[in-house]
Amino acid sequence: MIRVCIVDDHRLIRRGLQLLLEAYPDIQVVGEAEDGDEAIQLMHQLEVDVMLMDVSMPNGIDGFTASEVILQNHKHVHIVLLTMHDEEVYIQKAIQLDIGGYILKNSKGNELHEAIHAVHRGEKYYKVGLPEDQIAKLFKHSKKDYSILSVREKEIVRLTVLGYTNKQMSQRLFISPKTVENHKANIMHKLELKCKSELIQYGLTNHYHTI
């Protein structure tokens, strides 16, 4: 039996999801919350295996923030984001937070059931509007770890994202333009990136422009 908690700011949606899930004998709805704050509090009161989490909840903590807190403090819990947002930036954020599942609210009932079982097994389940190869690429990029970069290489990434030229970087870091080029080549090799635009995109994704 998989114990599920439903988090959505609309009561009718919570009720509809509960009725849908009650049709499956292997799932038990053990609680519900109307915002992220309440969801976090419920985790101290209930035994939950999988949490169905809305993303946009205007009257409380949003789904991403709540998910991050819950995953940090309750390692056994798995989360499926259930939302209307199919934009890449939302999906990218979910992957960065290592959220197990992401499906749209207009998905079929059997997909929700599949998502719950998949994340409960420790798998990823992302059924969204993006092509599967694009989603795979987002996951591939998320696995590259900036910890493999040196302090100097990380600074090169940051300055690249901020739009510095090689000459400007060399002046700022007191190294030659050739050394800057060598650092960039090493970074691209370590992160398995092919071009400058991929490096910039990856730097933006990992918030290097705010460091």
TrEMBL record:
Keyword Electron transport: no
Name of the protein this chain belongs to: DNA-binding response regulator, NarL/FixJ family, contains REC and HTH domains
Primary location: cytoplasm
InterPro entries according to UniProt: CheY-like_superfamily, NreC/VraR/RcsB-like_REC, Sig_transdc_resp-reg_C-effctor, Sig_transdc_resp-reg_receiver, Tscrpt_reg_LuxR_C, WalR-like
Record's GO cellular component terms: cytoplasm
Origin: domain of life: Bacteria
Signal peptide: none
Compartmental location: Cytoplasm
Residues found modified as 4-aspartylphosphate: 54
SUPFAM superfamilies the record matches: C-terminal effector domain of the bipartite response regulators, CheY-like
Species whose genome carries this gene: Virgibacillus chiguensis
Domain Response regulatory, first and last residues per copy: 3-120
Entry keyword set: DNA-binding, Phosphoprotein, Transcription, Transcription regulation
